[in-house]
Automatic annotation (TrEMBL):
Belongs to the aldo/keto reductase family. The keyword Nucleotidyltransferase does not apply. The keyword Repressor does not apply. This is Aldo/keto reductase. Residues 19-265 form the NADP-dependent oxidoreductase domain. Gene3D superfamilies: NADP-dependent oxidoreductase domain. Signal peptide: none annotated. SUPFAM superfamilies: NAD(P)-linked oxidoreductase. Keywords: NADP, Oxidoreductase. CDD domains: AKR_AKR1-5-like. It comes from Bariatricus massiliensis. Residues 270-292 are annotated as: Disordered.
Length: 292
């Protein structure tokens, strides 16, 4: 990969850019300017979700850009309350309306379990996936995938699906690489994407990343993003300024050495968001932290 315009090929043959732009909280204050700036900076792959509340703004920013819809790779996700066969079909139509488009490049299930008390989550996932498969077969979605699904959740989908997931989004960044999930997806031929690729700035002051930033004459954020690119993972950074947006794109002019890649990969845990696909896990850990 030599630029953000370079693409991976998904397991269904669809091309996907190697870096995207995350839109979570990217339209606060009911303003599309951040999204318009990202388009101006050169981003064409945008990741959104019904839960983010940014689909309307992204759709308008794309419209105002004057660029053909085909130049963009638009991904969205249905929220926990939108899961299930009928609800998924309805949620998809509403997403298209907000984005002002008649198709999605990729559509994802946002979380595998709506809540800890949902005992029928496996069937719920399968019903949701069946609806997505039908939309994909109709040509209304080019690729379908999953977000926050770990191996224990993916096994259920893979055992019953007609269309294999093309991609999985996980929280991935130095200090929180979820290696079991990464290895599983790599073995199954599923492309990985990283949300919170710079740990929502929580990891940028980690001594190792600061040291490597100085060594390679780049920013700690660029070290995080370059690390993921070299791992073959699509990072989805977000920023509000043109300067930072361009900086996040400029991660192709240097290579992190093999030794330094291992040093980053073996960092102690840092920067975890506190969110986990199995709700009871996050609840227990966060309660323990409060007790400390």
């Amino acid at each position: 990969m030599n630029s953000i315009n370079d693409c991976y090929t998904l397991n269904n043959g669809i091309k996907i850019p190697c870096i995207g732009f995350g839109t979570y909280k990217a339209a606060e204050g009911n303003n599309i300017q951040i999204l318009k700036t990202a388009i101006e900076a050169g981003y064409r792959y945008f990741d959104t979700a019904s839960f983010y509340g940014t689909e309307d703004y992204l759709g308008e920013a794309v419209r105002q850009s004057g660029l053909p819809r085909e130049e963009f790779f638009l991904v969205s996700k249905m929220w926990k309350e939108e899961m299930g066969y009928d609800r998924t079909k309805k949620a998809f139509e509403e997403t298209l309306q907000r984005l002002q488009t008649d198709y999605l490049d990729m559509y994802l299930i946002h979380w595998p379990r709506p809540e800890a008390s949902c005992s029928e989550w496996k069937q719920l996932d399968l019903d949701t996936w069946r609806a997505m498969e039908e939309l994909c077969q109709e040509g209304r979605i080019k690729a379908i995938g999953l977000s926050n699904f770990l191996p224990q959740h993916l096994e259920n989908i893979l055992a019953h699906c007609k269309i294999k997931p093309a991609a999985v989004q996980l929280e991935l960044h130095p200090g929180y690489m979820q290696e079991a999930g990464v290895r599983y997806c790599e073995e199954k031929g599923i492309l990985l994407q990283a949300w919170s690729p710079i740990g929502r700035q929580r990891v940028l002051n980690e001594p190792l990343l600061v040291e490597l930033a100085q060594k390679y004459q780049v920013s700690p954020a660029q070290i995080c993003l370059r690390f993921l690119v070299q791992r073959g993972i699509v990072p989805l950074p977000k920023s509000s300024s043109m300067e930072r947006m361009k900086q996040n794109m400029e991660v192709f002019g240097f290579d992190i050495s093999t030794e330094d890649m291992y040093r980053i990969a073996t960092m102690p845990q840092a920067g975890w968001s506190g969110e986990h696909p199995d709700p009871e896990v996050a609840q227990k850990i966060n309660k323990r932290k409060i007790g400390e």
